[in-house]
Design goal:
Strand order of the largest sheet: 1-2-3-4-5-6-7-8
Shape: globular
Order of helices and strands: EEEEEEEEEEEHEEE
Oligomer: single chain
Radius of gyration: 22 Å
Structural class: mainly beta
């Protein structure tokens, strides 16, 4: 596709309009890739599917090397550069994650003590809700799982 706004049907079965690839099918090393809405002129955004490895991508970026927002299906990861606000227009200046709601809370991952102990190399500050052996909130302090002191608050 080019930057002049032309409409083209390419020999490679690609269809494009404007400066954005509307739909593109390519083969890389025998793997079929489908790309819908791919744009890149120093800035990047795309919706992408790669057949052989089940990759799915939704990416918006300030440039091609620094993704501001990216979700990749085959890794199960979502990357948000800077801050993420949920339930608000923007995150508080002191936070990287700002969740606001007057009707619901944040639900920590729930697991048994055995599942908790199977976490390899937990990050300091990792939090979970333990469902067995004195159920409650736990946090990894860098060397041990620590139980939050819990008092009834009715």
């Amino acid at each position: 596709m080019n930057t002049t706004g032309n409409f083209r049907i390419l020999n490679s079965r690609n269809l494009g309009a404007g400066i954005m690839e509307s739909f593109m099918q390519t083969a890389t090393g025998g793997t079929v890739q489908y790309t819908l809405a791919d744009y890149n002129l120093g800035h990047s955004w795309r919706i992408h599917y790669q057949g052989g490895q089940q990759e799915r991508t939704l990416k918006f970026s300030g440039n091609t090397t620094d993704s501001a927002f990216q979700i990749r299906g085959n890794t199960g990861n979502a990357k948000f550069r800077y801050k993420l606000a949920i339930g608000s227009d923007e995150a508080h200046a002191s936070s990287v994650l700002d969740v606001q709601s007057t009707r619901a809370g944040v639900l920590m991952p729930r697991m048994t003590k055995a599942q908790r102990n199977a976490i390899q190399n937990p990050a300091t500050g990792l939090m979970i809700y333990q469902t067995t052996d004195l159920p409650g909130l736990r946090m990894w302090n860098g060397s041990h799982w620590v139980r939050f002191s819990e008092l009834t608050d009715d």
